[in-house]
Design brief:
Two copies of one chain form a homodimer.
Chain A (H helix, E strand, L loop, with lengths): L11 E3 L8 E3 L6 E2 L4 E10 L2 E7 L8 E2 L2 E3 L6 H13 L7 E8 L4 E9 L11 E8 L11 H16 L5 E4 L6
Parallel strand pairs in A: 4-9, 8-11
Antiparallel strand pairs in A: 1-2, 2-3, 4-5, 4-7, 5-6, 5-10, 8-9
């Protein structure tokens, strides 16, 4: 950020009165420009004992696998964002999705909200941001070709829960070593 | 947003290639300025059968009651944000906090992540953004003086869970009628 988005004056970095963090502040119109973490909403779509993964067609990590996930938009709920991303990336419809994990990535200002839920039917397709979409049994998950450590972390927790036969809502923070 | 924060050129609202939503776009440097929902992290601090609430000293809803909550910052996890807000607003330390609710407010682009957890000690105080901080039994909650409908919704769910004797993680979306 170089300029105030309200009045185009160059911004300076300072701690506003009553605050304790450096913010971009406009000395002309006094606007404080806050930057906050973004929510990535994702879903592990289930069809029987299988889950649906997508091979990314876009950078970063083009060519590697993930479950459908993307930035939540204003105007939707977290669940709606997860359902939308599942349809956009894998052309699959999920229903009755449950929150599965809240995984913070503090160093890059993201929080993943990962849901899981059954597919409405075995129909799916290749969304614009995907190269390939397919169902995997848990034994087939391509662990060495997963796009992001946070996705791998969520999938490991998922496999553990399925193995143990009980789902919980996981809340964790991943250090920069892992992302 | 009137001007590009990168190069100070006036922005226009358009749907970028490969996108399906209106964004602020700079026609000079081509930056797309995304606006995404913000996370409000909060905590219901527990001391025995009581919970700690704060009377807001700032607008909006100055003078009304809430549990500690505020915007998550880059560089922290959702739990750390909830713990920080609890200390800033109520000078109380909470430990072993659990996720209690994920409540989306689509129309204002916010998602509340509400935790609950025991206070480390009965010590608390009046933070800068509070007029008054006190412990309430669940029967004493000032329902007609709660700052925001989303806070009231979370507290109602909390009281229901305590009454039923079992906590769950609530995921819901609140319409604009309720916020």
């Amino acid at each position: 950020m170089n300029y105030c988005s309200v009045c185009a004056t160059p911004v300076t970095k300072k701690i506003p009165a009553g605050d304790n963090r450096l913010r971009f502040v406009c000395d002309s119109c006094q606007t404080i420009h806050y930057h906050n973490p973004k929510i990535v909403a994702g879903c592990i779509p289930e069809w029987g004992d299988q889950i649906l993964l997508c091979r990314r067609a876009i950078e970063p990590k083009s060519g590697l696998w993930t479950f459908p996930a993307g930035f939540m938009e204003i105007g939707e709920s977290t669940e709606q964002a997860a359902v939308r991303e599942t349809f956009e990336e894998a052309q699959a419809q999920v229903e009755r999705i449950c929150l599965f994990a809240v995984l913070s990535l503090p160093h890059i200002g993201q929080a993943y909200l990962v849901f899981r839920g059954p597919m409405h039917s075995p129909d799916f397709g290749i969304g614009e941001e995907s190269l390939e979409v397919r169902l995997f049994s848990l034994a087939e998950i391509p662990w060495d070709q997963i796009a992001f450590p946070v996705v791998k972390d969520a999938l490991r927790r998922y496999v553990d829960d399925v193995t143990r036969g009980e789902f919980q809502v996981h809340v964790a923070s991943l250090s920069d070593r892992l992302t």
